[in-house]
Design brief:
76% helix; Four Helix Bundle (Hemerythrin (Met), subunit A); mainly alpha; 257 residues; single chain; 9 helices
Protein backbone atom coordinates (compact mmCIF):
# COMPACT_ATOMS: atom_id res chain seq x y z
CA UNK A 1 0.00 0.00 0.00
CA UNK A 2 2.81 2.38 0.92
CA UNK A 3 4.58 1.59 -2.33
CA UNK A 4 1.41 2.36 -4.28
CA UNK A 5 1.00 5.75 -2.59
CA UNK A 6 4.65 6.55 -3.20
CA UNK A 7 4.30 5.71 -6.88
CA UNK A 8 1.22 7.92 -7.18
CA UNK A 9 3.07 10.82 -5.57
CA UNK A 10 6.02 10.26 -7.89
CA UNK A 11 3.69 10.24 -10.89
CA UNK A 12 2.11 13.50 -9.76
CA UNK A 13 5.53 15.03 -9.25
CA UNK A 14 6.60 13.93 -12.73
CA UNK A 15 3.64 15.87 -14.13
CA UNK A 16 3.70 18.93 -11.89
CA UNK A 17 7.42 19.75 -11.99
CA UNK A 18 7.74 19.94 -15.80
CA UNK A 19 4.52 21.97 -15.87
CA UNK A 20 5.91 24.47 -13.36
CA UNK A 21 9.19 24.72 -15.28
CA UNK A 22 7.32 25.33 -18.52
CA UNK A 23 5.15 27.97 -16.86
CA UNK A 24 8.18 29.77 -15.42
CA UNK A 25 9.87 29.75 -18.81
CA UNK A 26 6.75 31.34 -20.27
CA UNK A 27 6.87 34.02 -17.57
CA UNK A 28 10.54 34.67 -18.35
CA UNK A 29 9.81 34.93 -22.08
CA UNK A 30 7.02 37.41 -21.39
CA UNK A 31 9.30 39.46 -19.12
CA UNK A 32 12.02 39.51 -21.78
CA UNK A 33 9.40 40.66 -24.30
CA UNK A 34 8.59 43.64 -22.07
CA UNK A 35 12.29 44.56 -21.87
CA UNK A 36 12.56 44.19 -25.64
CA UNK A 37 9.56 46.51 -25.97
CA UNK A 38 11.41 49.10 -23.88
CA UNK A 39 14.66 48.56 -25.78
CA UNK A 40 12.89 49.16 -29.09
CA UNK A 41 12.92 52.82 -28.12
CA UNK A 42 16.67 52.85 -28.80
CA UNK A 43 15.97 51.74 -32.36
CA UNK A 44 13.40 54.51 -32.66
CA UNK A 45 16.03 56.99 -31.47
CA UNK A 46 18.27 55.84 -34.31
CA UNK A 47 15.41 56.29 -36.78
CA UNK A 48 14.76 59.80 -35.43
CA UNK A 49 18.42 60.66 -35.99
CA UNK A 50 18.38 59.24 -39.52
CA UNK A 51 15.18 61.12 -40.36
CA UNK A 52 16.68 64.32 -38.92
CA UNK A 53 19.86 63.97 -40.98
CA UNK A 54 17.71 63.47 -44.09
CA UNK A 55 15.71 66.58 -43.12
CA UNK A 56 12.51 64.56 -42.79
CA UNK A 57 11.30 66.53 -39.80
CA UNK A 58 7.70 65.32 -39.76
CA UNK A 59 8.84 61.70 -39.99
CA UNK A 60 11.18 62.30 -37.06
CA UNK A 61 8.30 63.73 -35.01
CA UNK A 62 6.08 60.74 -35.86
CA UNK A 63 8.80 58.39 -34.66
CA UNK A 64 9.14 60.53 -31.57
CA UNK A 65 5.44 60.03 -30.91
CA UNK A 66 5.90 56.27 -31.15
CA UNK A 67 8.75 56.51 -28.64
CA UNK A 68 6.51 58.53 -26.31
CA UNK A 69 3.79 55.88 -26.45
CA UNK A 70 6.27 53.10 -25.72
CA UNK A 71 7.72 54.98 -22.77
CA UNK A 72 4.21 55.73 -21.46
CA UNK A 73 3.19 52.07 -21.47
CA UNK A 74 6.25 49.92 -20.82
CA UNK A 75 6.30 50.64 -17.09
CA UNK A 76 2.69 49.53 -16.68
CA UNK A 77 3.45 46.32 -18.56
CA UNK A 78 6.51 45.67 -16.41
CA UNK A 79 4.50 46.08 -13.21
CA UNK A 80 1.58 44.03 -14.47
CA UNK A 81 3.79 41.09 -15.46
CA UNK A 82 6.07 41.39 -12.38
CA UNK A 83 9.14 41.70 -14.56
CA UNK A 84 11.46 42.66 -11.68
CA UNK A 85 10.51 39.51 -9.76
CA UNK A 86 10.79 37.21 -12.79
CA UNK A 87 14.14 38.64 -13.95
CA UNK A 88 15.73 40.12 -10.80
CA UNK A 89 19.19 40.12 -12.37
CA UNK A 90 18.15 42.45 -15.23
CA UNK A 91 17.98 46.18 -14.43
CA UNK A 92 14.96 47.41 -16.36
CA UNK A 93 15.23 50.89 -14.85
CA UNK A 94 18.73 51.32 -16.24
CA UNK A 95 17.52 50.18 -19.65
CA UNK A 96 14.65 52.66 -19.44
CA UNK A 97 17.03 55.50 -18.54
CA UNK A 98 19.34 54.68 -21.45
CA UNK A 99 16.46 54.64 -23.91
CA UNK A 100 14.90 57.79 -22.44
CA UNK A 101 18.17 59.69 -22.76
CA UNK A 102 18.40 58.73 -26.42
CA UNK A 103 14.77 59.46 -27.32
CA UNK A 104 14.05 62.38 -24.98
CA UNK A 105 17.40 64.16 -25.05
CA UNK A 106 19.96 63.24 -27.70
CA UNK A 107 17.71 62.65 -30.72
CA UNK A 108 15.50 65.76 -30.19
CA UNK A 109 18.51 68.06 -29.78
CA UNK A 110 20.06 66.65 -32.94
CA UNK A 111 16.72 67.19 -34.70
CA UNK A 112 16.73 70.86 -33.68
CA UNK A 113 20.29 71.20 -34.94
CA UNK A 114 19.64 69.55 -38.29
CA UNK A 115 16.43 71.55 -38.76
CA UNK A 116 18.36 74.81 -38.22
CA UNK A 117 16.30 75.81 -35.18
CA UNK A 118 19.45 76.57 -33.19
CA UNK A 119 21.76 79.55 -33.68
CA UNK A 120 24.59 78.90 -36.10
CA UNK A 121 28.23 78.39 -35.22
CA UNK A 122 29.78 77.98 -31.81
CA UNK A 123 26.80 79.49 -29.99
CA UNK A 124 24.52 76.81 -31.43
CA UNK A 125 26.90 74.03 -30.44
CA UNK A 126 27.17 75.33 -26.88
CA UNK A 127 23.41 75.71 -26.68
CA UNK A 128 22.91 72.14 -27.94
CA UNK A 129 25.42 70.89 -25.37
CA UNK A 130 23.56 72.39 -22.40
CA UNK A 131 20.56 70.01 -22.45
CA UNK A 132 22.87 67.05 -23.09
CA UNK A 133 25.02 67.90 -20.08
CA UNK A 134 22.15 68.89 -17.77
CA UNK A 135 20.21 65.73 -18.54
CA UNK A 136 23.32 63.58 -18.11
CA UNK A 137 23.47 64.92 -14.57
CA UNK A 138 19.77 64.36 -13.97
CA UNK A 139 19.70 60.79 -15.30
CA UNK A 140 22.47 59.88 -12.85
CA UNK A 141 20.69 61.24 -9.78
CA UNK A 142 19.23 58.49 -7.62
CA UNK A 143 16.44 60.84 -6.54
CA UNK A 144 15.51 62.01 -10.05
CA UNK A 145 12.31 60.03 -9.54
CA UNK A 146 10.96 60.40 -6.02
CA UNK A 147 9.46 57.58 -3.98
CA UNK A 148 6.01 59.15 -4.28
CA UNK A 149 6.27 59.28 -8.08
CA UNK A 150 7.39 62.75 -9.06
CA UNK A 151 10.28 63.95 -11.19
CA UNK A 152 12.76 66.16 -9.33
CA UNK A 153 13.82 69.04 -11.56
CA UNK A 154 12.72 69.64 -15.15
CA UNK A 155 12.20 66.06 -16.37
CA UNK A 156 14.25 66.31 -19.59
CA UNK A 157 11.24 66.48 -21.90
CA UNK A 158 13.42 67.84 -24.69
CA UNK A 159 11.40 65.85 -27.22
CA UNK A 160 8.33 67.91 -26.29
CA UNK A 161 10.36 71.11 -26.29
CA UNK A 162 11.62 70.28 -29.79
CA UNK A 163 8.07 69.48 -30.94
CA UNK A 164 6.77 72.93 -29.97
CA UNK A 165 9.83 74.75 -31.27
CA UNK A 166 9.30 73.12 -34.66
CA UNK A 167 5.52 73.43 -35.02
CA UNK A 168 5.50 77.06 -33.84
CA UNK A 169 8.60 77.81 -35.96
CA UNK A 170 10.18 79.73 -33.12
CA UNK A 171 13.13 82.03 -33.94
CA UNK A 172 16.64 81.22 -32.65
CA UNK A 173 16.40 83.89 -29.93
CA UNK A 174 13.29 82.28 -28.42
CA UNK A 175 14.85 78.82 -28.79
CA UNK A 176 17.94 80.04 -26.95
CA UNK A 177 15.89 81.33 -24.03
CA UNK A 178 13.80 78.15 -23.80
CA UNK A 179 16.80 75.82 -23.80
CA UNK A 180 18.67 77.97 -21.27
CA UNK A 181 15.72 78.15 -18.87
CA UNK A 182 14.86 74.45 -19.11
CA UNK A 183 18.52 73.47 -18.65
CA UNK A 184 18.68 75.56 -15.47
CA UNK A 185 15.37 74.09 -14.23
CA UNK A 186 16.92 70.62 -14.35
CA UNK A 187 18.90 71.67 -11.26
CA UNK A 188 16.05 73.40 -9.44
CA UNK A 189 14.41 70.93 -6.99
CA UNK A 190 10.83 71.45 -8.12
CA UNK A 191 8.75 68.28 -8.26
CA UNK A 192 6.99 67.62 -11.57
CA UNK A 193 4.18 65.21 -12.35
CA UNK A 194 5.05 61.69 -13.39
CA UNK A 195 2.01 61.38 -15.68
CA UNK A 196 1.65 57.61 -15.58
CA UNK A 197 2.33 57.22 -11.84
CA UNK A 198 1.65 60.35 -9.76
CA UNK A 199 -1.28 59.43 -7.51
CA UNK A 200 -2.83 62.90 -7.18
CA UNK A 201 -5.34 63.62 -9.99
CA UNK A 202 -4.17 60.39 -11.63
CA UNK A 203 -7.23 59.66 -13.77
CA UNK A 204 -7.58 63.25 -14.97
CA UNK A 205 -3.89 63.34 -15.86
CA UNK A 206 -4.16 60.10 -17.84
CA UNK A 207 -7.19 61.37 -19.77
CA UNK A 208 -5.52 64.68 -20.59
CA UNK A 209 -2.30 62.89 -21.53
CA UNK A 210 -4.24 60.74 -23.97
CA UNK A 211 -5.90 63.82 -25.48
CA UNK A 212 -2.52 65.51 -25.77
CA UNK A 213 -1.06 62.52 -27.62
CA UNK A 214 -4.06 62.62 -29.95
CA UNK A 215 -3.56 66.34 -30.58
CA UNK A 216 0.14 65.66 -31.26
CA UNK A 217 -0.84 63.17 -33.98
CA UNK A 218 -3.48 65.48 -35.48
CA UNK A 219 -0.97 68.33 -35.66
CA UNK A 220 1.51 66.11 -37.49
CA UNK A 221 -1.20 65.07 -39.95
CA UNK A 222 -1.63 68.73 -40.88
CA UNK A 223 2.04 69.63 -41.10
CA UNK A 224 3.63 71.83 -42.33
CA UNK A 225 0.73 74.19 -41.57
CA UNK A 226 -1.38 72.75 -38.72
CA UNK A 227 -4.48 74.53 -37.50
CA UNK A 228 -3.64 77.10 -34.80
CA UNK A 229 -6.56 75.77 -32.74
CA UNK A 230 -4.93 72.34 -32.46
CA UNK A 231 -1.57 73.83 -31.60
CA UNK A 232 -2.92 76.01 -28.81
CA UNK A 233 -5.26 73.27 -27.57
CA UNK A 234 -2.25 70.99 -27.10
CA UNK A 235 -0.61 73.72 -25.03
CA UNK A 236 -3.50 73.45 -22.56
CA UNK A 237 -2.04 70.16 -21.36
CA UNK A 238 1.37 71.79 -20.87
CA UNK A 239 -0.32 74.51 -18.81
CA UNK A 240 -2.18 71.89 -16.76
CA UNK A 241 1.05 69.96 -16.20
CA UNK A 242 3.01 72.97 -14.95
CA UNK A 243 0.22 74.47 -12.81
CA UNK A 244 -0.65 71.16 -11.13
CA UNK A 245 3.04 70.43 -10.48
CA UNK A 246 3.50 73.84 -8.85
CA UNK A 247 0.27 73.45 -6.88
CA UNK A 248 1.32 70.07 -5.49
CA UNK A 249 4.72 71.54 -4.60
CA UNK A 250 2.94 74.30 -2.73
CA UNK A 251 0.77 71.83 -0.80
CA UNK A 252 3.81 69.79 0.15
CA UNK A 253 5.72 72.84 1.40
CA UNK A 254 2.65 74.02 3.29
CA UNK A 255 2.15 70.65 5.00
CA UNK A 256 5.81 70.45 6.05
CA UNK A 257 5.90 74.00 7.42
Amino acid sequence: MANKIQKQRQAQSDVIVPSLVEHFRWLQARAFAVHLYTASGAVLALLIVLAALQEKVVSALWIGLAALIIDSTDGSLARRFHVNEILPWFDGRRLDDIVDYLTYVFAPILLLWSNHNLPTGTVGIVLAALPLLASSYQFCRVDAKTEDYFFLGFPSYWNIVAFYIIIFKLPPTAVTMILLICSILVFVPIRYLYPSRTIEFHRLTLVLTGLWLLSYALILLEMPNPQPFLMYFSLFYMLYYVILSLYLNYLRLKSSA
